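Subject: for your reference before the review

Hello V.,

The reviewers asked for a structural picture of the protein, and I figured it would be easier to keep everything in one thread rather than splitting it across files. Below is the amino acid sequence we used in the manuscript, unchanged from the supplementary table.
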Amino acid sequence: MKKHTILVATMAVATLGTTTQSCLAIATSSVGLAVLKQILLGGITKGLNIFSDKNSFLSNQLIDAALPQQLRDLNNTLERIGLSSLVQKEREYIARAAAFTVETSRPILVNAVNSLTAEDAARIVQGGSGAATQILRERTSEQLIAAIAPKVDAKLNEFGLISSINSALAGTNVLGGLFGSQNSSSTLTSGLSRLASQQMVNGLFNIIESHEQQNSATIMNSLNSVR
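And here is what came back from the structure prediction:
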């Protein structure tokens, strides 16, 4: 009886190992890799379409969840001193600025997806849901922020947001407390633009990851159908 049990267990382990190897082999095939890329490109398109529409950007919870804590603290401070209207203006201006980053972000992300290799596909299969987006985050996050920050900075200044916040907080030490003890105007200009850029990039990745997770069954079904 013990020998029979050991034999069955050994066969089960061997079968599991073969299945895992089979899945990895399928994932690293050209067909499996194409499926993964298609899902990611769909998530990128979905996210950038949201960025192109101010109202969609403002109402998206995944983008709101990406708001950096420092910017959240600034908004809480403004609301606490009765400047909720300025916070709303800030959010709307950031949403409007996001539309001007779409064509800068698109080629960076598309190139990263098209550069995925068989080794990346194997890592994605082993990493589970969200692993593909994580690879994109690692490879493009800083590049995206560096690329869009100047556009965000130009638009927020064009809309007059920086000067509005500076005027509202003139004579206080709020900016120094939140952004450091440097000159408040220059610190806010660079700090706010970078924080807004971080929110955009992280919000975009949140949308891509959500799309990947929603389509994880499609990915696996497509891979299994090739077997």
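For the response letter, the relevant points are probably these. Confidence is low (pLDDT under 50) at residues 5-22, 24-28, 223-227. DSSP finds 13 helices and no strands in the chain.

Happy to draft the paragraph if you're swamped.

O.
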